[in-house]
Amino acid sequence: IKEYLNRDLEIRLSTLEASDPRDIFSADVNRIIHETLSSLPDRTRQIFEMSRFEGKPYKEIAENLNITVKGVDYHILQAMNALRVALKDYLPVWFFFLHHF
């Protein structure tokens, strides 16, 4: 039994070593991000997407939506806080893999 368990452990470790950690968590992380962004108020989601996905600067977003740059900053902060809470279980794992592989 001990020999079997050792062999099983070796197989599991070799499989884990051969896996790219980004692939392991990628689907879950993408799902959580999508769900979190979907749960945000429309304006907050829109501003976050304009900033992060479209690469627009805060000033341009503010001008397009007729709000202040400080208002844009507020909405981005709200979205980032929501994502930080939603991804709290994944952040330590990502940090570990990004710095050790």
Offer a concise description of the structure:
With about 100 residues, the chain is mostly helical. It has six helices and no strands. The two termini are about 35 Å apart.
> Which band does the percent of strand residues land in?
under 5%
H/E series, N to C? HHHHHH
Low-pLDDT stretches are: 96-101
What is the distance, rounded to the nearest whole angstrom, between the alpha carbons of the first and last residues? Answer: 33 Å
Instruction: Categorize the overall geometry.
Output: rod-shaped
Number of DSSP-assigned strands:
0
User: Radius of gyration in whole Å, from Cα?
Assistant: 20 Å
Based on secondary structure, the structural category is mainly alpha
What is the helical fraction, as a range of percent? Answer: over 70%
Largest sheet: none
- Averaged pLDDT: 80
Compute the number of helices.
6
Detailed description of the structure:
The chain is mainly alpha-helical and 101 residues long. Helix 3 packs across helix 5 and helix 4 packs across helix 5. The C terminus is likely disordered. It is rod-shaped. The longest helix is centred in the first third of the chain and has 19 residues.
